[in-house]
Structure to design on (117 residues):
């Protein structure tokens, strides 16, 4: 259940990040920062998917740890975006809440996998 929820939430976050970055580019607020957010925000779901098809438990843990790092990086860029008024507080709140949910699920999945080694 957690993995299915994690796949779904990380994909939803990626779609939201893609839409946000696309809107920023359309409004001429595009920058290197937008590209950074796009990369890390979409990487979370890609690594979760890879982890679900890992060749070993250690490979699974590695992919989920990468996804966790990307989640933390996404949170960092979102904080910068809201503090510099690139995005609104409402946009930030929605996206950071999604990141928080994903982060908690990733940590739980990593801890469970490590406990089973």
């Amino acid at each position: 259940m957690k993995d299915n929820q994690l796949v779904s939430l990380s994909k939803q976050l990626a779609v939201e990040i893609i839409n946000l970055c696309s809107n920023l580019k359309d409004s001429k607020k595009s920058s290197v920062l937008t590209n950074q957010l796009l990369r890390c925000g979409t990487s979370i779901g890609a690594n979760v998917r890879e982890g679900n098809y890992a060749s070993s438990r250690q490979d699974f843990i590695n992919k989920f740890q990468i996804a966790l790092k990307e989640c933390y990086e996404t949170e960092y860029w979102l904080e910068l975006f809201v503090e510099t008024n690139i995005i609104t507080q409402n946009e930030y709140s929605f996206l950071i809440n999604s990141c928080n949910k994903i982060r908690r699920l990733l940590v739980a999945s990593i801890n469970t996998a490590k406990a089973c080694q």
User: Anything to note?
Assistant: The helical segments are 2-26, 32-52, 57-83, 89-115. Residues 29 and 67 are 27 Å apart (CA to CA).
